[in-house]
Amino acid sequence: MTAKIYRPAKTAMQSGKANTQDWVLEFEQEKPRSIDPIMGYTSSADMKSQIRMRFDTCEAAVTYATRNGLDYRVVEPKESKRRRVAYADNFRFDRRQPWTH
Q1: What's the domain range around 67?
Q2: What are the phi and psi torsion angles at 35 (to 5°)?
Q3: CATH code where residue 71 lies
Q4: Does some domain include residue 83?
């Protein structure tokens, strides 16, 4: 049983960074999912894939995994590069792109 420790990225519907500060430990899927032939639902017999635990730090998640004898891998987060822009830059006289409506 392998666990994955990561910090979730913000969703496309978020403008802020809510729910992205905690570290998550979740188990990777052991058995493949199956499709119900009648209804078309996707189901799985793997119950541990439903477990998601949140920790304040990565070290706390790693400590939990080693204390319980779990194999784990840590996925480091990729920090986004935020470009600083100002509204006044739209009206600068030395713009690279011409102002159009």
Answers
A1: 2-9+18-77
A2: -105, 130
A3: 3.30.160.190
A4: no
Q: How many domains does the chain have?
A: 1
**CA torsion, ordered 42, 76, 7, 47, to nearest 10 deg:** 30
Is the pTM higher than 0.85? The answer reads no
Residue 88 counted as domain residue: no
User: How is residue 57 written in tokens?
Assistant: 């730090």
Mean per-residue pLDDT pooled into runs of 10, the chain (101 residues): 90 81 92 89 87 96 96 90 81 76 60
CA distance 95 to 67: 58
Beta-strand pair 34-35/52-55: unpaired
Q: For 26, list phi and psi in degrees, rounded to 5.
A: -140, 150
